[in-house]
Design brief:
5-stranded mixed sheet; alpha/beta; 4-stranded mixed sheet; 18 helices
Amino acid sequence: MAGLTLGTPARAEGTVEVLHWWTSGGEAKAVGELKKSFEATGGTWIDSPIAGGGGDAAMTALRARVVAGNPPTAVQLKGPGIQEWAQQGALNDVQAVAEAEGWDAVLPPALAGIMKYEGQYVAAPVNIHRVDWIWANPEALAKAGVEAMPTTWEEFNAAADKLQAAGIVPLAHGGQPWQDATVFEDVVLGVGGAEFFRKALVELDQDALTSDTMVAAFDQLRKMRGYVDPNFSGRDWNLATAMVMRGEAGFQIMGDWAKGEFLAAGKVPGKDFLCAPTPGNGFVLNSDSFTFFKVEGDENLTGQKVLASLIMSPDFQKTFNLAKGSIPARTDVPLDDFDDCAKRSHADLVKAIESDALVPSMAHEMAVPRSVRGEFLDLVTEFFNSDMSSQDAVEKLAAAVKRAM
């Protein structure tokens, strides 16, 4: 793999074409910060945003570009996808930058491992997202007589019933496979705990996949289906967030990129919206990162090096994550300017690392190969949109996972 030599001139002549799927309000603002910072070094930024599908459309476009021999300079990529491209020899490493700047000392080991291939950094993480969040409209909850954020699924169901009785949509949801899978994996964590989550959704253990615990998770998911409005199918996640903002819906279950939407709209945490982890003791990890593809030309190679250094700089990590709703990937960035939801996220992250309850997201491509994730998404969405029994769901899921492995 090609290594990049390190040099940090005050103004670097470098070019990057950046392929990403950050197109909604909070996300677009966050990527705008990265573009601004890169251009401040004297570099040229070519923006290649591809909306839709939680990144699925962008990955389709990336495959076509690589096959055509015209890969972008930097690509938003994550989890096992990084390793898969590295195994194909498609990536440059940025190990020289990482060593010079001491990345190993400031990244959580579990996250650093995801960014490396054969011990060399091939990606730079911009953040840590928590997937297992409930967002709520306090006025809607008050109208329905819901006095506190739920801490168990039983409490969630009781609150949702009250919202429904008050004529408020209990759960704002977009009927897209990755959104269905997001709710599903948060339910699995709450029903089964971190160890079960790891066995079923990361290690793909057949006994766990067909267990009574997994049946119970599907039972709860069936309950959730009854709490969404009739127009949920195909709705983008940020439009579901807007329903909560307007008070049309009480809750949304979504990662903390949803907070970026609230903040971009000028909403204040604790006043205009509430945040709480979904039921269960654990932390479902999602992390955005940029991976560097093999490209020709000194200016592109320089651009990769500058971008990697910039992404991992403490100032950028702070600025970016304040806009995105996530927390810095670096553990040494002060959180004084971050809101209470972010501080809660960081505290729970530290606790989860200590108690071995930090689990990688299946839905957001941190845990399993895309082929296996595809089977989960297909089955969960089929279940959500049919009258399939929970018992049938676990049997079909286990069989599909076995085929994909």
